[in-house]
Structures are given as structure tokens and as C-alpha cells.
Amino acid sequence: MPRRIAGLLVSVAMTLLGLLLVTFLIGRVVPIDPVLAAVGDRANAETYERMRHELGLDLPLWQQFGLYVADVARGDLGTSVLTSRPVLEDVARVFPATLELATAAVIIGVILGVPAGVMAAVNRGRWPDHLVRVLGLVGYSVPVFWLGLVGLLLFYAKLDWVPGPGRLDVFYDGLVDPMTGILTVDALLAGETEIFWNALSHLILPASILGYFSIAYISRMTRSFMLDQLRQEYITTARVKGMSEARVIWRHALGNIAVPLITVVALSYATLLEGSVLTETVFAWPGLGQYITNSLLSADMNAVLGGTLVVGAVFIGLNLLSDLLYRVLDPRARR
Known about the structure:
With 335 residues, the chain is mostly helical. Helices cover 76% and strands 0% of the residues. It comes from Skermanella stibiiresistens SB22.
């Protein structure tokens, strides 16, 4: 067991080191001068060289990477040129909004995607199967920004079923103290039910747009797993014994795909956390995606690379968590 734990820690450390190397190289190859972004294009040569020395850009590349790793290990992701605050502080401020949006989206994906995949597998070759596959294909094919704009035009501008962009109406802005940063949770903790319902109404449309893509992925994988299980001998045996079809499908077949399905849901969740950039831009959602986009447009590479690094670390963490759950739930994986 200690050897396994040590091997796992080494694997995680090497993955994080590779992530640091990739983000470091991206920061060095993009055609943006971090010195000019810090001092402005009207600074004289002396100021330029002094800032270049302070940033360590006059050192050899391997030394720059060593300093970068040391800074990240201390929790220092640099200072944002756009906000003049530490990047880690900015990320901690905006990440809960992305977490709230992605969590709502993956809940929608699981609640609708798993039953849709089961229905498609049970009715293979018939119209429910074709319907689920077509909806999944559309979910994979349609650009998320286009779907978001259409959703705003239809449900907000035309039908007035949902409120407009943003996390909250302007009237309620600043009335709830950000204890967790997740607005719906903070409103409930503060006992502000009116603000909770307003925040939830703002969350519905962007979460549904993101959730649709999660439904497409989860339903497709659920269908594939279920088709494999329904061909197994234990399913035939259960049917021969007279067990009801609902029990065979929902308890035995679905129960046996629960373990790989956890990995699918975890990866889908990680994808939503790092793939909500366009959705947050369309809906003016003040999360990590919009923060990275605004920083990129302002040539703020410290913020861009810091946000990218945080997203990569979350992806690695969720992947590790799914692997641990896989081992806990499946005794064969432990052996």
C-alpha cells in the first residue's frame, strides 16, 4: 500500500510538472511581450530593461522555468496587469461562479443523460434510440455560442421566460455577502429567499445550454455501456428466472455500469469547468472563463496562464478522484 501511494503521488507530481511546462512554454511562444504589457508601449529603454530584469526574462530559459515552478509551489501565480491584484486572488474570486454553473450543468446532464442513454440502449434500432442519437449528434455539432445566442433571443427577448445575462438583477447586486462565492448557496445561508430565486432564474438558461452538451456525452456513453451489459449472460439468466424487465435494466444492468459511468461524469464535469469560456462570454457570467477571455484580450498573460493552470489542476484532481472512486467501488480494480 505505501508503494502504491508513493507511485500515485509521483504520477500526480509528474503530471503537474508537465502541466507547468506546457503553460510556461505557451507564455514564452505567444506573440505578446509581458514587459510591454506591464510598463506600456511608451516606456523608455531603461524602464523596459529594468522591468525585464525584475520579471527574470533576461535569464536562461531553464532558470526561468525553475523560478516559475518555485513561484507556483508557493502559490504565487504572478500579478494581473488588468486588475493589479495577485492572479490567485482573482481566480479565487471568480472560480465559484464557474463552479456553480458547471455543477448545475452536470446535474442536468446526469438527470437527463443517464435515462436517455438507458432508453436508447433498451430500444436499440427503434425511434427512441434514433431520437437520442440525433439529439446527441446535435449537441456535439452545434457551437455553444450560437446556441447561447439563440437561447437568449428566444427565451429572454421573445418569450420573457428567463431573465437576461449576468448572475443577478442589478437591484440585488451586493446585498448578499460572498461567504462561499456560490450565489445561490450564499443567498440561502443569508436567508434571502427572494435573491436565491432570482439567482436561480439567471442560472437556468446558461446551465441548460451547458447541460445539453453534457447530456449528449453522458447519454452516448451510457448507451454504449448498457448495450454491452444487455448482451451478457447474467442478463439472460435474470430474464429466464422471471425477473421483471425494469428490475433487470435499472438494478442489474445499470448497477454494473455505475463504476465506469462515474469516470464519464467526472470527465464531463471537468470539461464543463474548463469549457465554459464561450458560455460565460455570451451570458456575461463573471466566472473563470470570462476572466481568462478578458485577460487574453488585454494581453495579461499572467492571468491567462494562471487561470489555465488552475483549470488543468482541477482536471487532474477530478480525474484522480474518479480513479479513486473506481477502486473503491470495484474490488477488481483494487486487485
